[in-house]
Amino acid sequence: MRMRLTARDWVPVGPARHLLAEGPHWRPDTGTLAYVDLPARTIHTGTGLLELPRRVSFAIPTRTGWVAGQETEIAVLDGDRITRTLQLPGLTSPAVLNDAKCDPERNLWVGSYDPSGNRAGALYRLGPGGTQVIVTGAGASNGLACTAEGSTVLWIDTPTRQIHALTLDGWSGPLRSRRVWCDLRHEPGLPDGMALDAEGHAWVALFGGGRVLRIDPVGRIVGRFPTPVTHPTSLAFGGSDLRTLYLTTSRHRLTAAEVVAQPLAGAVLAAVPGVPGLPVASADAHKLP
User: Fold this and answer.
1) Is the pTM of this model over 0.70?
2) At CA 284, angle to CA 282 and CA 285, rounded to 5?
3) Segment-wise mean pLDDT, segments of 10 residues, the chain, 289 residues
């Protein structure tokens, strides 16, 4: 499907302007969008606001609470109370947690990166079988998406500006193959968050590039859509029919003049691209090791 999406088609969802909004997740149970503001240490739950003790990089709802990334550990919350924390093998400061998603079997996939620039990032899978390190030597493990057909995870390593296809022997099985699915080195900005639509196309936010890409199932770019901000961060489909595309954005690294020129920087934006999204699984705290 060919579509047209202009910068004016993105409208703000509410008045809030965040420093660095990330990790949007549609909640069918409440009919609302959840996301985090990393430096503010907050989870915008869709029905309220939770503040965590440390910088929060992702928050995925469970039946009674949240699974959230806090710097070097994963916090499991019941309601607004942290009931336990999980440590990941080999994850030590200055490396920190970054983006996360759940696969259809509700295994939790979470990545890390090293702000010092070393390739010390990794991609982990947490489930009933324990914690497995799927990829090591990443620059910055970032956007994730699970395909509808076959057990394949699309995974962004931001500094390389590449999206990899990780094919597994079942969602809980071993990694069977890894290949570069889409090379974005010729595109402006850095690939950040990602979502999949019902036609199997990936939507990717280009941080610093001021645009969102649509990429077909074989890794070809079929759409380049401008955003009204320089720093889009991540995407999620939502609404009762999953036809609204939500986009989190950032004011981080903008000059004062750029903030004035981009009044929507830091807002959560929404557009209707003409294609529905794939549903994304919530987390199951009981399946975590």
Assistant:
1) yes
2) 130
3) 88 93 97 97 96 97 97 96 95 92 97 90 96 95 94 97 97 96 98 98 98 98 98 98 98 95 98 97 96
